Every structure is written in C-alpha cells, then in structure tokens.
Amino acid sequence: MPRFLTLSDVCEELQISSAQGYALVRTGELPAIQVGGRGQWRVEQTVLDAYIESKYEQTRQQVARDRTR
Prior knowledge:
By secondary structure, the chain is of the alpha+beta class. It has a single domain (4-67), classed as Multidrug-efflux Transporter Regulator, Chain: A, Domain 2 (Orthogonal Bundle), CATH 1.10.1660. Helix content is 59%, strand content 16%. The chain has helices at 7-14, 18-27, 45-67; strands at residues 4-6, 33-35, 40-44. The protein has a three-stranded antiparallel β-sheet. The protein is elongated and about 50 Å long.
C-alpha cells in the first residue's frame, strides 16, 4: 500500500466528488501536502485513516447527544 494517496484516490475511498475532496484539503479539515511543480495534493494513508476515525467518533458523540434529548 502506498504511503501517499492522490486526491482522486481519497475521493474514491470516501465516495465523494473531487470538489468535495478539494474543499476538505483546502480548508485544512483533511491535512494534505502539495508536491511537485504542479502542486498536486497528496494525503498520507495514516492521516486519511485518522480522519475517518475522527468522523466515526463525531458521529458516535452526535448519536449519544441525540439520545439524551
């Protein structure tokens, strides 16, 4: 498995559009780096895994809050 993923790989894994993926990295919600002369975005696999886990945690917290209402 490669250490770094292209933005299109990330979008495919998250099943989101390229515009949504670009927004995630441009806002800093999903940490990424730009490499090469054309500034191609790359996301480290471990960073994407942590991002996904953080979204699961946010969902768990939201569900717990909704149950207490």
